[in-house]
């Protein structure tokens, strides 16, 4: 036992004289004969460990030192020192779909006028604009259905390659620039803003918070503010969030695109697997 230097007379129960000190202390205190004070009893571990073991001061036990990982990984692999395993570099799965491969309905038109498209062309909604007609009508006009085959479950970033096919005289970057998007059987469908860590869900999904601006029936409004072809695909007005979907099983899923702004052109879309955290 090693005694602390902190004196505490609170442990004193009896004293028969000043010299020599014959004071008696309570259980959690011990007598310091030099000062004749009752002091708190602090135990200090004096255990000495063998080579290959380290003393745990809290438990006063010798613990075996961890065996250093000496595994050598093949080229391109990374050693995880915590698990002592070689890990292959993460290569994201990308699901790419040409917009014109859907069966076009209503006033969706396949076009080749604007250079820079991929595949056989791109699609443009040439009918009446479909915004602010009531939440119950969101996504009903010009509904296009796509089927994708997810072979690697996980969370995917959604982006489409689109452009503004008709430039307005005023604010050309914010007119004819959006369409509706829904993933009805994804396990999670949401917008995320990395700078703030905020998440939004479309109205009608049963989840909150919802994005700013018009949305409903499980549809996000997906917009670009770029003149020319762009992969910018944002939701939530004046507070852009990127769009993600989580697919928990390897199987076929549905993606739906519907008309909103007229003269919004869509070339293709892609879903990129995100690295698990």
Would you give an account of this structure?
The protein is mainly beta and 277 residues long. The protein has two domains: 65 residues, no CATH class; 180 residues, Galactose-binding domain-like (Jelly Rolls, Sandwich), CATH 2.60.120. Helix content is 0%, strand content 36%. The chain is built from no helices and 21 strands. The strands form six sheets. Strands 9, 10, 11, 13, 15, 16, 18, 19 and 21 form a nine-stranded antiparallel beta sheet that branches. It has a four-stranded antiparallel beta sheet with strand order 12-20-14-17, with no helix packed on it. A two-stranded antiparallel ribbon has the order 1-2. Strand 3 and strand 4 form a beta hairpin. It is elongated. The two termini are 48 Å apart. The N terminus is likely disordered.
Radius of gyration, in Å, reads 34 Å
- The CATH superfamily label of the largest domain reads Galactose-binding domain-like
In quaternary terms, these chains amount to single chain
Question: What's the CATH first level of the largest domain?
Answer: Mainly Beta
CATH topology of the largest domain: Jelly Rolls
Number of helices: 0
